[in-house]
Specification:
This protein is mainly alpha-helical. It has a domain at about 30-55. The chain is built from one helix and no strands. The longest helix is centred in the middle third of the chain and has 29 residues, at about 30-60. It is rod-shaped, with a radius of gyration of 21 Å. The termini are far apart. The mean pLDDT is about 85.
Amino acid sequence: MYDRAQPGYQDASEDQGKVTLGDLRKTKLTLKQISKLRQMNDVRTYEQEQKLVKIRKQYGTPPEAPAI
């Protein structure tokens, strides 16, 4: 639960989203930030697909047993 951050997740040390009193201009995204966001989105998409596979396996209809 409290493991080190995995690659592709948000890094709190690089979070520049906090607005201070002197910030009047809209922030611009750098290519590094855009690629990191894309990587985070890919990880979330993959995890969501894996979660759906597990749910379908758990709640799906069981395969028919062969007739004896």
